[in-house]
């Protein structure tokens, strides 16, 4: 194996990237640690991999995310230090927003600086990530009381490059509602959805999970028709948006605690709010989706504050709250779920990618209120599924999305959502105006292949 992939936090976008590289790049071997207790992984992963990664003369390249303390690993394993060392930054700790100033741990940012110094190539998932890291090195090191090192930015910058996170998209046509297919020039009929060519769709990508059932306990779908292999969640979401009130059987919602206890199964909490009469698809309440990690840096408080204000004003909308949870879940989630009541369509993490994309396809608007974002895979995936994005005019978002989709203040976000709720047809007829092809695996494949190839060093 010529490429040694090491991921100290094997979850979310970190997992997506190394899984994609292992699938698409020849001669890769992957070693990982679970996506739990991030701070401990950042502190101790090097020691674990020192003992776990076997010695091999076949390695030529070491690829790791910046969670790993690369400096410690190459010191503990001199054989790995001889490889071409590529460090990939999904985020950087120099500008991470902490809830309290005293919570700042100097060591995490310091480790990333050291790792850059020993790496041969330092790769960032966005220009915002790279520049915010490099320009913050001097200020960050001023936290040291004395004997501060100098010129580190000048030493690190020549190694740096931007290589956007590569997103490999499945064909989600069969999950699309009629209005999304129609305004993209396709015609749907009943339960079958023809191919919809989105600006950055991977036409040659096949996902077994899209033609088979999502998990083993649902049985094989090999002999089923396309309609029959739709998952229960897809059917419920489709029925909600296409069937008049009174023809859908309501089911009691699970509690928040039950949902968290059963995260290993793709349980969907669905509620069915009042939908008057025979409304066509353009008149049904706006469906808002929030697909981010349930952590403070994504600022769920601001998001729910706006939704609760609209709820108090009796503005009609639906909301789906997706995203992974970790050890500490902000209390606002349980409070907001109860307060939003019948406006909630889905609540909780969906381990199945099929069901995750189904929810995105049925949504109209995707929202970010993040205070910490260096790329935003979830936002790109939602746009791919036909959602209208609304993002802060800050962080990485101006680099990714046109100005039309950015807001400057929570008040602006509220006003735009309020207007969309009054006229959801405007959103549903909208064609996304951004350029998204640059974020696809098809566009980035060659650059990643070049990054992960090298001539063997003489001393290997």
Record the SSE blueprint.
Layout: E1 3-10, H1 12-24, E2 28-34, H2 38-52, E3 61-65, H3 70-76, H4 78-81, E4 84-89, H5 106-118, E5 121-124, H6 127-141, H7 152-156, E6 160-162, H8 178-182, H9 232-242, H10 256-261, E7 286-290, H11 300-312, E8 317-321, H12 332-340, E9 344-347, H13 353-362, E10 365-367, H14 377-384, E11 388-392, H15 397-400, E12 406-407, H16 410-422, H17 424-428, H18 441-451
Parallel strand pairs: 1-2, 1-3, 3-4, 4-5, 5-6, 7-8, 7-10, 8-9, 10-11, 11-12
Helix pairs in contact: 2-3, 3-5, 9-13, 11-12, 11-16
Number of domains: 2
How is the biggest beta sheet arranged?
6 strands, parallel
Quaternary structure of the protein: single chain
Low-confidence parts, pLDDT < 50 over ≥5 residues? 186-278
CATH topology of the largest domain: Rossmann fold
According to DSSP, the number of beta strands is 12
Radius of gyration: 23 Å
Percent range of helical residues? 25-40%
The CATH homologous superfamily name of the largest domain equals Glycogen Phosphorylase B
* Percent strand: 5-15%
Secondary-structure element string: EHEHEHHEHEHHEHHHEHEHEHEHEHEHHH
Q: Structural class, from secondary structure content?
A: alpha/beta
């Amino acid at each position: 194996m010529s490429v040694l992939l090491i991921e100290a936090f094997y979850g979310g976008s970190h997992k997506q990237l190394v899984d994609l590289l292992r699938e698409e790049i020849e001669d890769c071997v992957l070693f990982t640690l679970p996506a739990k207790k991030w701070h401990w992984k950042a502190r101790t992963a090097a020691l674990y991999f020192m003992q776990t990664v076997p010695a091999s003369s076949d390695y030529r390249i070491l690829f790791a995310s910046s969670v790993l303390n690369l400096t410690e690993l190459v010191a503990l394993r001199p054989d790995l230090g001889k490889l071409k060392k590529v460090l990939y930054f999904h985020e950087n700790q120099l500008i991470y927003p902490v809830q309290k100033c005293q919570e700042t741990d100097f060591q995490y940012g310091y480790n990333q600086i050291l790792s850059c110094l020993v790496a041969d190539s330092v790769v960032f998932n966005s220009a915002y990530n790279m520049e915010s890291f490099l320009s913050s090195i001097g200020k960050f090191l001023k936290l040291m009381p004395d004997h501060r090192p100098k010129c580190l930015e000048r030493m690190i910058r020549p190694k740096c490059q931007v290589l956007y996170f590569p997103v490999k998209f499945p064909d989600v046509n069969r999950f699309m509602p009629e209005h999304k297919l129609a305004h993209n020039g396709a015609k749907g009929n009943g339960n079958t959805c023809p191919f919809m060519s989105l600006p950055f769709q991977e036409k040659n990508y096949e996902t077994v999970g899209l033609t088979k059932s999502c998990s083993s306990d649902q049985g094989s779908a090999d002999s089923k028709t396309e309609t029959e292999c739709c998952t229960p969640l897809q059917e419920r979401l489709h029925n909600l948006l296409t069937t008049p009130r009174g023809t859908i059987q309501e089911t009691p919602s699970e509690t928040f605690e039950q949902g968290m206890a059963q995260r290993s199964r793709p349980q969907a909490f669905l509620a069915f709010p009042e939908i008057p009469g025979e409304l066509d698809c353009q008149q049904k309440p706006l469906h808002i989706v929030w697909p981010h990690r349930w952590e403070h840096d994504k600022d769920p408080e601001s998001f729910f504050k706006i939704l609760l204000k609209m709820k108090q004003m009796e503005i009609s909308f639906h909301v789906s709250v997706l995203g992974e949870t970790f050890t500490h879940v902000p209390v606002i989630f349980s409070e907001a779920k109860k307060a939003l009541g019948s406006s909630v369509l889905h609540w909780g993490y969906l381990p199945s990618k099929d069901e995750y994309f189904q929810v995105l396809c049925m949504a109209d608007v995707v929202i970010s209120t993040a205070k910490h974002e260096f790329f935003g895979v979830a936002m790109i995936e939602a746009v791919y599924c036909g959602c209208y994005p609304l993002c802060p005019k800050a962080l990485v978002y101006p680099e990714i999305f046109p100005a039309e989709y950015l807001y400057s203040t929570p008040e602006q976000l509220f006003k735009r959502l309020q207007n969309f709720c009054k006229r959801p047809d405007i959103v549903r007829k909208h064609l996304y105006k951004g350029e998204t092809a640059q974020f696809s695996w098809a566009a980035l494949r060659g650059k990643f292949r070049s990054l992960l190839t090298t001539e063997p060093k003489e001393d290997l």
